[in-house]
Amino acid sequence: MDPEVSVLLHCTAWGGLLEPQVQVELSARFNRQTDPALESHIEEVWTERVTMEPWLFNGAKFRLHSFSLASPQPSCPPTPQPPCMNGGGDRDGRQCSIQKEEEGQHETKGNADSGRAQVLRHQRDQIDGVIGERQHNDKDLSSYKQREGNLRDSQTSTPGCRDQHPAVGSSAAEAQPFPQRDVGGKGEGPTPILTLRLGLTCYRDFLGTNWSQRARKLRQRAEVEYGDPLALLAQPLGVGGVLCTADRQVVLIRRSQQVAEARGLLDIPGGHPEPKAVFEGLDEEDRIRVEMLQWREEAVVRELFSSVCAEIRDEVNVPLCSLGEPILMGIALNHTSAGRPSAEFYISCSLTSTEVRELYWQGGIEAQESTEIVFLSQTEVLRLDQSTPLWSELCPSAKGAVLLYQLVLPDRENKSN
């Protein structure tokens, strides 16, 4: 197992999760802990960094504190579960703390393969007890698609866009390789399966904690003072998209030398969901408080799913109307930045790799963030590991997304056979 990255959560049992199957809980309790000395250090790091790289700017981000999976349905016999990895929490709700999940994976470097297998077995046990095989509910997906369409009112006028479903040159199954299972009863809306517990943080705090040279000491101190090694870290939740074209090519981009992290490495399109996007017309991000977001939880989930599409549009220059619905594959952790979490999505595209390449070289809104576009076949991506030369060219975020893709896609295809 690569020590730079690990899988915190995978959604293999469902073939990935759609927006209605995810909910959020927002609270100031999920913000990081702090004190005057730490704030002074963060300000010092930020001032020095901006002096060297004046193009950097601060912005509010969501902080991932923990997550939980729904309890088993009454019709599903409960599966014996291991205790939560944080030693506490509600066993019925199966709350899983990122702190102990992440630490349990990060500290198994000496026995990496068995450590990864243990974590994945733990999560598969959780998932298997939550949901059984069920029929697809067209009504739920139709409602979702209608709501998603309302968010993309600008894409209908985009020149050159084709019908989203199915992808051109492919079957419906190819355009949507992770079929969803119904998670609600007949006539009912979809039941949320995954709950993300979110606070607020910012990019400045990330550079002064997760990305700081003091990150290890901050973890040690937080463990002693709060019983939580991540309590003092920013832990901003990122998003990434495994974009698959109509001819079954996965899109990678090479990061430029002007970005703050992983310069020159291959990555998937991605970024962060933005709290300010939940508030129309709010320019001053420092005015955003968790209490303001608690009444807009559905909008926060919508931003989580739609932001990854916006990142693909801005970085690859692919129009939104060519993208399928984002499907959450899981959450990966980047250990080069002290275990920063990223939600990784699968997104189908109705354009071919040739068409995507042409659009990329025309330049998008964030064209300066990358210098090259690379395509790998699905087969090549499924075979990527530490023994392949290309693996060393992937940044940790891309590695995490590839690991999740390798978990979810083969499981889906085995179930469809």
UniProtKB/TrEMBL annotation:
As recorded in Swiss-Prot or TrEMBL, the protein's gene is named nudt22
- InterPro entries in the cross-refs: NUDIX_hydrolase-like_dom_sf, NUDIX_hydrolase_dom, NUDT22/NUDT9-like
Q: What does the record give under GO molecular function?
A: GDP-mannose hydrolase activity; metal ion binding
User: What cofactor is this protein dependent on?
Assistant: Mg(2+)
- What is this protein called in UniProt? Nudix (nucleoside diphosphate linked moiety X)-type motif 22
Q: Which UniProt keywords apply?
A: Hydrolase, Magnesium, Metal-binding
Q: Region annotation Disordered: residue ranges? A: 71-95, 128-189
Biased composition (Pro residues) is annotated at: 74-83
Record-linked SUPFAM superfamilies: Nudix (SSF55811)
Native source organism of the sequence: Salmo trutta (Brown trout)
Q: Which residues form the Nudix hydrolase domain?
A: 234-408
Return the Basic and acidic residues bias intervals.
Answer: 128-151
**Does the record's keyword annotation contain DNA-binding?**
no
